[in-house]
Amino acid sequence: MKRFLLSVATAAGLFLASSQAWSADKLLNASYDVGRELFVQVNKAFIAGHPGVTVDQSHAGTSAQARAIAEGLGADVVTFNQVTDIDFLVKKGLVSADWQKDFPDNASPFYSLPSFLVRAGNPKHIKDWNDLVRDDVQVIFPNPKTSGNARYTYLAATAYAKEAFKGDDAKVKEFVTKLFNNVPIFDTGGRAATTTFVQREIGDVLITFESETRGIRKEYGDDKFEQVTPTVSLLAEFPVAIVDKVADEHGTRDLAKSYLDFLYSPEGQTIAAENGLRARNAEVAAKYKADFPDVRLLTVEDVFGGWDKVQKEHFAAGGLLD
After folding, report:
1. 8-state DSSP, 50
2. Can you tell me the distance from the alpha carbon of 45 to that of 25, in angstroms, rounded to the nearest whole number?
3. Contact at 8 Å (CB) between 23 and 50?
4. How does pLDDT run across 78-116, given as a tens digit for each residue?
5. pLDDT digit string (tens) for 196-208?
6. How far apart are CA 66 and CA 62, in angstroms?
7. How crowded is the C-beta side of 193, counted as CA atoms within 13 Å?
8. Helix, strand or coil for residue 70?
9. Could you give the CA distance from residue 111 to residue 237 in angstroms, rounded to a whole number?
10. For residues 282 and 53, what is the distance between their CA atoms, to the nearest angstrom?
11. Taking the CB of residue 175, how many other CB atoms lie within 10 A of it?
12. Neighbouring residues of 151: CB distance < 8 A, sequence distance ≥ 6
């Protein structure tokens, strides 16, 4: 219920942000769909150190967010979960081409991975990716066409299949097709998929970011849901950038940089870790190490040859995803 109310509040806040005159002490952060709770806390902490500043939020699937910004949504900063959606803004002339050099770690302050959430007792005994293609399992994740969250799920499943079938493309395609055929509903974003699984009680397993699975367990209790970490998953980075064209028009560039810098500070990293994201800061990561299961993480670069190649081969019109 808290997550649903945050969705409503986000929509109301975005309406207000778009209907008011802009000023140099106000930011709009366009972010990914399941980042609501995280940025409520981030914004509160940031504003505490910057009296008089206002930070409004917009949340949706990041591909949808990128298109909205290209069509006029006045976001000063983006905190996305997929590099290609920021690169889309680069092609539209809204973000500088070297945006990944503006902040540490290729402008990704924290990271996560696709993880599983099952119902209490794990009645279908789901342990790894190969269990998701069984005929008796219904899988819930959003539409990769609109959700960066879901694109990581698609890529993680594909990476698993590439290893399992030793690069046999036909068997990989068959595996991923079976997985997609086990999805009864494709919601547009990660939070809607969570609602489908948790509140509508559809499906046997939810695939989403590890941070979301941890948040659901924390809110609803271990007596309702269990987290399952697969043997292998895909590194999910959360890239951030200043929307240069908008920030310059609003006069918010310095404030926007301070806001994104805050995500790298010990306080910002601690907030991320407490919200189930894996911190880049070594001290913070060590402090919360026991909260995060060990998992072998593959990367888009190593498995697929980088995001540019992924976009062309998998996500472009007529690509493998289609």
Report:
1. S
2. 16
3. no
4. 999 999 999 999 999 999 999 999 999 999 999 999 999
5. 999 999 999 999 9
6. 6
7. 35
8. helix
9. 5
10. 30
11. 22
12. 82, 144, 315
Question: Which among 134, 135, 153 has a CA at the least distance from the CA of 144?
Answer: 153
Half-sphere exposure of 194 (CA within 13 A, CB side): 27
Question: Residue 88's beta-bridge partner residues?
Answer: none
Q: Tell me the mean pLDDT in the region 142-160.
A: 94
The Cα–Cα gap between 270 and 187 comes to 31
Higher pLDDT, 221 or 65: 65
Encode burial over 295-314: b for 16+ CB neighbours within 10 A, e otherwise. eebbebeebbeebeebbeeb
Token pair, residue 158, equals 């594909």
Residue 1 has pLDDT above 70, yes or no: no
Partners of residue 140 on adjacent β-strands: 206
DSSP state of 24: T
Q: Which two tokens stand for residue 80?
A: 């996305």
Model confidence at 8: pLDDT above 50: no
Q: Which two tokens stand for residue 48?
A: 């505490």
- Helices 36-48 and 266-274: crossing angle, nearest 10°? 150
